[in-house]
Amino acid sequence: MVTDGQEGKDTTTEQPLEVTKLQELVYELKIEEVMTKKVVTVSPDDTMRHLKDVLRMSRVSGAPVMRGSELVGIITIEDLIKALEAGDIDAPLGQRMTINVLTVFADETVIQAVNTFGRLGFGRLPVVKRDGKLVGILTQGDIARGLLRQLEIDYHEEEIHSYRASHIFEDIVSDQTGLILRYNVRPHDFSHCGEAASKLKRALQRLGAKPNIVRRIAVASYEAETNLAIHTTNGGQITAEIQPEKIRIVAVDQGPGIPDVEQALQPGFSTAPDWIRELGFGAGMGLSNIKACADEMSLESKPGTGTRLQIVIRL
Question: Where in the chain is the domain with CATH 3.10.580.10?
Fold first, then answer.
């Protein structure tokens, strides 16, 4: 887990971040849930003139270039404009397309695509399955529309959903009552990354936790889960202890530990390798986002031993 390096570091957040429903959904929705599944494609042997007609008829501003079932490039309206200016309207797309195509996986979360769009400024990203098969195209507009659709669905579900177990703490008589939930996180398993956070979120919703509290916990636990997946070789465990007045989330691993805790807490700092960054992870905002969502956060780490991250959110 991306942790820093002192034995223990305690950080208390004075004013926790107010997480919106949209921010929560960005962490929860998968790319395949918001992408455009019907993809307009072209061939590298097609001409720029043909591309002009395709973009006009399909009302899109770019298209993946396919040779059979293989993705070999991407071509955009910007490429068409440059070809028109150069008088190359009949040039084959293979001469004008971008060859090194950055793709995203269908089972990744939307936050990874948002990070990629923000970092590179692309207008569209081809979406592939883990075997490399093209299954969709993703634009920033797709993300916005997908989020709005999910907002409407969630609203209706909340209106219908009447089951609540918030009385659980009132009906059980004891000196101290709590509910403990545990989730195992596997290393580098990015296709399932975020599932623990989603399960915890659903449990809290069933218990009747306030939506703004659930959103803060969902974001913080997602970031903690991602850190476990990125930075450990053996994975780790997330434990949530739910009490009437607060929720304590602890993420523990036996990974490499953090050499410098203070440095790891700086926004943008990350020890993630390049291949992790290319997947849309490791932007260096994980611990900062967690701290912003928490009422209290403490980080204990020792190189070669592992890391223990504790988050407290008061109810």
Answer: 32-145
Burial zone of 38 (CB within 10 Å; 0-12 exposed, 13-18 middle, 19+ buried):
exposed
pLDDT score of 160 more than 80? no
Looking at the chain, the domain(s) classified CATH 3.30.565.10 span 9-21+168-314
pTM given for the model: 0.52
Buried b (16+ CB within 10 A) or exposed e, 261-271: beebbeeebbb
Give the fold, CATH level 3, of 9-21+168-314.
Heat Shock Protein 90 (3.30.565)
- Give strand ranges (E) for 220-305: 236-242, 246-253, 296-302
What's the CA angle centered on 81, arms 72 and 113, to 5 degrees?
50
Do residues 90 and 47 make contact, with C-beta atoms less than 8 angstroms apart? Answer: yes
Rounded Cα–Cα distance for residues 155 and 157 (Å): 5
| Among 7-11, 70-74, 108-112, 262-266, the least confident range | 7-11
> What separation in angstroms does the CA of 155 have from each of 30, 88, 161, 306?
19, 51, 10, 41
Q: Which residue has better confidence, 182 or 265?
A: 182
Q: What is the fold of 32-145?
A: CBS-domain (3.10.580)
Task: Report residue 49 CA to chain centroid gap.
Answer: 38
**With b meaning 16 or more CB within 10 Å and e meaning fewer, what string describes 149-166?**
ebeeebeeeeeeeeeeee
